[in-house]
Specification:
By secondary structure, the chain is an alpha/beta fold. It folds into two domains: 56 residues, Winged helix-like DNA-binding domain superfamily/Winged helix DNA-binding domain (Arc Repressor Mutant, subunit A), CATH 1.10.10.10; 183 residues, Rossmann fold (3-Layer(aba) Sandwich). It contains ten helices and 17 strands. Strands 7-6-5-10-13-16-17 form a seven-stranded parallel beta sheet, with helices on both faces. α1 packs across α3 and α6 runs parallel beside α7. The radius of gyration is 19 Å and the shape is elongated.
Length: 252
Amino acid sequence: MIPAERQRRILTLLKSQEVVSITELADLLDVSHMTVRRDIDKLEKQGKVNSVSGGVQLTQIIHSELSREMKIMQFSEQKEQIGKLAASLIPGSATIYLDAGTTALEIAHQISQRSDLLIITNDFSIATFLMTHSLNEIYHTGGKIDRENQSTVGSKVADFLLSMNIDMAFISTSSWSLKGLSTPNEDKVTVKRAISKVSKIVYLVSDSSKYGKIASFHALDIDKIDAVITDASLPESAKLDLAEKGLEVLCP
């Protein structure tokens, strides 16, 4: 059986089965584990599947984001750990950007006692929290309001960001893979691309549940990210693939 045929059979099986183990695929296709892993690697690079512990699953397509209220309730412990780790990386007197999202809000919680930072954000909740609980200098980007995400998006946000020089950016996302970051909201694309251009260091801050998902609009290539801060549940295969692309993966 040629590789293309094996890969088609893997995709067909995954349509009826959420996760398939490497062993099961090797038995079904009558090939070695190494051959299966090569097929999976090929499909993963095409964005069709993603590796999980001991197996593989179809890439999930995201058509819309959860409301902010729903996001707050999900993976709160992991987000808090990510926030603590991210905050520990911020040097003194730095200019930083906190992207809209509940994970970035956790970073804001962790740096609220500092007073030496200049913080830029497009997130209303982050700006409000820091305005109340922090002595750091704060800039909100302004721009078109995204009610669901309680933030601002679009070209006006990008224009503001392109006028700044930023030491360290913490970018969030609802979906990411080896190809990069994606979003169901086209207005977020220009914001993420702008911040990647003006920041010396760009961190992706995301819990592992968002890995292997793809949304309608490609926002940022993975090589625009310097490092990923995530939780310990990210599959080892994903860590290895990211390392091959030169990305450091940091876990609490």
